[in-house]
Amino acid sequence: MNDVPTPVDAEQRRSARPIVCYRTDQLPAYQPDRYVKARESMVRVAEVLVEPRDAQTFTVKAGQFFRIVSVEGSQVGDLNLWNANDLSERFFSGKTRQLHASHVSTGDRLWSNLPGLRPMATITHDTLAWYGWDSDGAGVHDVIGTRCDPYTNYQLQAVHYHHCCHSNLTRALAAHLSVPLTEAEPHVHDVLNVFMCTGFTLDTHQYFMKASPVRPGDYIEFFAEIDLLGGLSACPGGNCGSSHSDDSTPCFPLLVEVYQPPDGSMGDWQAPPINGYDRTHGV
Fold it and tell me: 149-157 contacts: CB < 8 A, separation 24 or more?
């Protein structure tokens, strides 16, 4: 209960003009024509099927494309990305959210953590781009949810559930690296919630989910700006329209496809360097 008195100038304080924090027009411009040309004749070179309530890793070379595809039913996925040559550089959902929006789509980039802070992947096609924002304020492909995890699940329900996306990604990364779970787990990080339909309630501003609009054949496509190791979990929440973190919700696999564009089709594209800040921090 809020028992703090309302100041007499409350409305004046609330009426301050909102200011967008970052001028994104200063970022490198998205060049859709470049990607369209490369996509026209690219060839699928690999695929990985992610089973329900499980995760798999996959690799993508800089300059290749990859897709996450709905193949059997409405299903959301949790995506982790690492620099394939240095796992300490990984996807930074918070900065991606600040530079773009709470939900991402075609033309947006997935940025790496500090101190690298560079594009890891660019979204080049999204068959759910039509969804936009609905009357609840929800959108698709969010960078606000963290990932379902067994620790929060235990805190709320006192149940040991092992197929949360955090655990799925931990098992998959440990298997890929051939290391113990305890060594892999610290590398698992906040995700891009692929196909997930989410927002904040208009009254209490709580994070909510609703049934995903994804259908078999839908996909989101990325261009790898650097060599990537990916981890994708087919969430135990299924389409996230009912329950969460259990074995009762209908779940379906997700497919990862990797594509190689023809040599020279990306013109003068080059992998982005790490951030140019000198890291002296004023000392």
Answer: 153/245
CB 60 within 8 A of CB 258: yes
Residue 266's Cα: distance from chain center in Å?
24
Given its phi and psi angles, is residue 236 left (phi above 0), alpha (psi -120 to 50 degrees) or beta? Answer: alpha
Q: What is the pLDDT of residues 122-175, one digit of tens each?
A: 999 999 999 999 999 999 999 999 999 999 999 999 999 999 999 999 999 999
Between the CA of residue 250 and those of 52, 69, 175, 208, what are the distances in Å?
A: 9, 17, 26, 19
Residue type (1 letter), 16? A
Determine how many CB atoms are found less than 10 A away from the CB of residue 130.
9
- For the chain, the domains span 44-260
pLDDT of residue 22 exceeding 80, the answer is: yes
Element (H, E) at 154: helix 150-157
pLDDT tens digits for range 191-216: 999 999 999 999 999 999 999 999 99
Output the six-digit token pair for 134: 């609905």
